[in-house]
Write a structure and sequence with these properties.
Largest sheet: 7 strands, antiparallel
CATH superfamily of the largest domain: Immunoglobulins
Structural class: mainly beta
Shape: elongated
Distance between the termini: 157 Å
Helix content: under 10%
CATH class of the largest domain: Mainly Beta
Oligomer: single chain
CATH architecture of the largest domain: Sandwich
Mean pLDDT: 91
Number of domains: 5
CATH topology of the largest domain: Immunoglobulin-like
Radius of gyration: 42 Å
Low-confidence stretches: 1-32
Strand order of the largest sheet: 42-39-36-37-38-43-44
Number of strands: 44
């Protein structure tokens, strides 16, 4: 009996002792004081880090996920690194505690702190070293290495250059128009200065250009500045933080690297690299720039044109020719309608300087840039002048413009009948006017008495015909479509206007009346389509561009407008010559005569 009781007591004590057993502190679970596995976040494995000696206080962040602590103790973390080749992450050569005394899951370290740590580990100045790295969590009882190990390449301090930004030209899709032959004009590229590391070599700069490209879906492809289209050193042999790059230098560089079509804009991206010793620092930003090579041609010589261009062989004040914008002729073919006095002499300049000038060649009608002779006209008159830079030819003939087509009475589509029947009046350089009675039909404008040859690269002697698919005020095209049909027969005012050489256009307005406007009229300066003849006194057409009427005015100023509700082609003037200035009158009744063709007026 006593032996049985003793056995029962032993079993009870064994059960009590078993229920009081201590936990295993080495377990990697959430029980007791163990730690749970965790992983690294960044920098991503394979990162290359160049420590820039010019900005030692620049920081980098190393991050990881938390290791869940046990019952009471929060772990501390240490970033560890070992050599990738021959190293052992369990025996690191670099150890750095995380932020907040090792409690944070992030290590923020400056370039200098990291460089000092690598120096202490025996890594040479400027050396690039491949490491493996991880993080150790430690709660005092257990140390646990992160589940993964990352690679990183780090280059120690040697040379450096501080970051900098681009200033000009600002990133834009709007083209910068340049004369590809100019050696006097330039684009100013500017950026902030980069500073070398203490004791480092002086900074030198280089501008890098790449062509902007897109994929088949129209998405922009990231630029690769390791393979630039071309590079240009900054001013002062690369020392200055700016570069004044000549137009010709940019154009020549574009052409030398395959962008030879001057009629197409060159879409580029540019950046700057600052170099100090072995260190290369690219600017913080990349800018877009679009270069449009526009060959502008001017007529510089010993004359004064009808529009007042008096240049005395000065390209800066010379009249500009119109660029022929047809495909294949852009930047190659040019024309103008201009008055020249007797014995005028001139040359064609490319741009507003004598960088490139075209004179007469050895054969009649040829051009040369090799010290060619002056082009001459012996008789005063209006001339049409054309040149072609591709064929290096020029042509001078009578400058005129006329109306042709089914809507043009007594002419039709026969150019041989245009002059003088439907000839327009020359008003000044690149401007013609006609007041004409049209029938309802199609029409065009033409500057010769025959049609052109229709060739792809027309000769400079070929005639020009002008049409448009737009309403009055639209741009004119050469040798293409007809003008919009005249819908209602009647008298119209037609103006061929190339005074803006970038936009040759036309206007077509009713020519029933010419109106007087101004403070001396009942209607004042208000220009409304609803105004009556009492408010807006009309003049009646007399033929051959002449208007006449008897008008009662008060004291004040007046002008003449071609249609109510519009200020297009209004006339003022002084001393009987039509111009821009207001005309001052005293109160009274006057007979007013306006001659639009000869640009004169009388008030009697």
């Amino acid at each position: 009996m006593q032996a049985k009781k003793l056995s029962i007591l032993i079993l009870i004590l064994a059960a009590i002792f078993a229920s009081c057993k201590k936990p295993d502190l080495a377990g990697n679970d959430a029980t007791g004081e163990g730690l749970v596995n965790f992983t690294l976040i960044g920098p991503a494995s394979g990162t290359t880090l160049l420590l820039n000696a010019a900005v030692p206080n620049t920081t980098i962040d190393i991050t990881w996920n938390a290791s869940t602590p046990g019952l009471h103790t929060v772990p501390t973390y240490t970033w560890v690194a070992a050599l990738k080749t021959g190293g052992d992450i369990t025996k690191p050569i670099v150890k750095l505690p995380s932020n907040n005394g090792g409690k944070d899951t992030k290590l923020t370290v400056t370039y200098k702190q990291l460089d000092d740590a690598l120096k202490t580990a025996g890594i040479a100045d400027g050396a690039k070293t491949d490491f493996i790295w991880s993080v150790v969590a430690d709660n005092g009882s257990t140390q646990l290495l992160a589940q993964n190990v990352f690679n990183i390449s780090i280059s120690r301090f040697k040379d450096g250059a501080s970051p900098f930004v681009l200033l000009a030209p600002a990133s834009s899709a709007t083209p910068i128009a340049i004369d590809p032959g100019s050696t006097t004009q330039s684009i100013a590229f500017k950026w902030t200065k980069s500073v070398p590391a203490a004791g480092g070599a002086a900074i030198k700069y280089k501008i890098l250009f790449v062509e902007k490209k897109t994929d088949s879906n129209g998405n922009e492809i990231a630029p690769d500045f390791t393979k630039p289209l071309f590079t240009i050193a900054s001013n002062n042999s690369g020392v200055d933080s700016f570069a004044n790059v000549l137009y010709k230098s940019i154009s020549d560089s574009l052409s030398a690297h395959g962008l030879t079509n001057l009629s197409l804009p060159s879409n580029l991206k540019w950046t700057v690299v600052a170099t100090s010793g072995t260190w290369s620092q690219q600017s913080d930003y990349i800018n877009d720039v679009v270069i449009l090579r526009e060959v502008r041609i001017y007529i510089a010589g010993s004359f004064q044109s009808a529009s007042g261009y008096g240049n005395d062989w000065t390209p800066a004040t010379a009249p500009e020719m119109v660029r022929d914008m047809r495909a294949g002729l852009v930047n190659n073919k040019y024309y103008t309608y201009i008055y020249l006095p007797a014995n005028a002499e001139f040359k064609f300049t490319q741009g507003r300087a004598w960088d490139v000038a075209y004179g007469t060649g050895a054969t009649p009608g040829s051009l040369t840039t090799d010290n060619g002779g002056n082009v001459k006209v012996s008789t005063a008159g209006v001339y049409r002048i054309c040149i072609n830079r591709t064929t290096m030819t020029y042509d001078i003939q009578a400058g005129r413009m006329g109306l042709v087509g089914g809507a043009v009475t007594n002419v039709g589509w026969d150019p041989s009948k245009v002059f003088p029947t439907a000839q327009m009046k020359f008003l000044g350089d690149n401007k013609f006017l006609a007041i004409y009675d049209f029938t309802a039909d199609g029409w065009k404008m033409i500057d010769a008495d025959h049609w052109n040859n229709g060739g792809a690269n027309p000769d400079v002697t070929d005639p020009h015909t002008f049409g448009s698919n737009g309403a009055s005020g639209s741009t004119l095209d050469i040798n293409n479509e007809n003008m919009p049909n005249i819908a209602v027969a009647g008298r119209y005012r037609v103006i061929w206007d190339g005074t803006d050489v970038n936009n040759v256009k036309y206007t077509l307005t009713s020519a029933d009346k010419l109106y007087v406007i101004g403070s001396a009229t009942v209607g004042g300066w208000d220009n409304l389509t609803t105004q009556t003849d009492a408010q807006r006194p009309p003049l009646t057409y007399q033929g051959n561009g002449v208007w006449k009427g008897t008008v009662t005015l008060g004291s004040g100023d007046i002008k003449f407008i071609v249609q109510k509700g519009s200020w297009d082609y209004s006339y003022g003037g002084a001393a009987g010559k039509l111009g821009d200035a207001n005309i001052t009158v005293s109160a009274g009744t006057y007979t007013i005569t306006v001659d639009e063709y000869n640009k004169t007026y009388t008030i009697q």
